[in-house]
Amino acid sequence: MPSLPNPLPPVVRHLTSIAPSGKCIFAPPRLTQLIPKAVLPDGRVPGRFANLFVTDKWKPDVRNPDLSEGENGSKLLVSMGGANFRVTDIAPRTKGKMHSTPSLDFLVVHKGKVTLHLDSGEKAVINEGEAIVQRGTVHAWENESETEWARMFVVLLDADGAVQHH
Length: 166
Hints:
By secondary structure, the protein is mainly beta. It has a single domain (32-158), classed as Jelly Rolls. Helix content is 3%, strand content 42%. The strands form four sheets. It has a six-stranded antiparallel beta sheet with strand order 5-6-7-14-9-12. A four-stranded antiparallel beta sheet has the order 8-13-10-11, with no helix packed on it. The chain has one helix and 14 strands. A hairpin with a 4-residue loop joins strand 10 and strand 11 (123-126). It has one helix spanning 71-75, and strands at residues 11-13, 16-18, 24-26, 30-32, 35-36, 47-55, 83-90, 94-95, 103-111, 114-118, 123-126, 131-135, 139-143, 150-158.
């Protein structure tokens, strides 16, 4: 079954900055190119993601560069010792694999709805406009819709104590 086209609009990231003069300015807006996830055995693309901003420290200097630029930062999931702001699109009829990340995650479902599965067998449907705090648990995301893509905005903070998925 082929992938349904993703109708969600591109993400434009706006970034404020501090000029050498001390004045607050905007950096040029960036049209974020979402990276397709690996193709499934049935030929479908399960989703796309992009990092919108990455830091390498919990308490960064706001003048430090954005680490999401470049090959390494663009695909980074958790920035060790830092934070990552990302967007994730999930295709219809797609369930990800169970996994865990060493992070404290703050997620908002921007479009559609997703189901969050935990390794205990529990699950919760997270609707458009709802938020979840994901605390290092073993989990999988699913978009159960037959036709609609889902989009989540996520902030991942490096954290201790996450459950390791085997």
